[in-house]
Amino acid sequence: MDPWTRTVYEVVRAIPKGRVASYGLVAMLAGRARAARAVGNVMLECRDPSVPCHRVVHADGSLAPTFRDQRARLRREDVAFRGARVDLERALWAVRLPRADARADVRGRRAVRRRVRVSSSFDAPSSRRTIR
DNA sequence: GAAGTGACCGGGG
DNA sequence: CCCCCGGCCACTT
Question: Which nucleotide is at minimal CA–C1' distance from A5?
Fold first, then answer.
């Protein structure tokens, strides 16, 4: 599996249950801000069940027509819809910076340069939360 | 390398 | 609201 695909998988796995991210957002987090289209290509081929590909939607909340049970799978996670599209006001993943690393490797003074991981624990959905 | 093909995106009409 | 267009990126012919 190529690095691009691997990175995209990693980002998509970080989308919390009950939230969605747009292809463009996933692209950004994967380090290629304008590669939304390429993210779509990866999703199209994705058969890995550990990757919640149903949580990736269009920037306007609409879904890919060919992805049959996407809506059902989202509904099962209580994602709100407004007509045919996801209610992004409620369900869009609000990405946050990861904690400034409590668990930095202390052994050795050499700063460990590791890749920032997006954590799935951020922005877990809360039904009571109101935006704006 | 050129050309075509997407589960894309933003802006404009 | 909708549709369309140009730009975009990775992959395949």
Answer: C10
Residues 6+ apart with CB under 8 A from A132: A89
Domain residues for the domain of A21 are: 1-132
If residue A76 lies in a helix (H) or strand (E), which one and from where to where? Answer: helix A70-76
Q: Is the pTM above the cut of 0.85?
A: no
Q: pLDDT tens digits, residue range A63-120? A: 999 999 999 999 999 999 999 999 999 999 999 887 776 545 444 334 444 444 554 4
**Closest nucleotide to residue A83 (Cα to C1')?**
C1
Strand C bases near protein CB (under 7 Å) are 7-11
Residue A86 sits in a domain whose CATH number is 1.10.10.10
From the C1' of C8, which residue's alpha carbon is nearest? Answer: A34
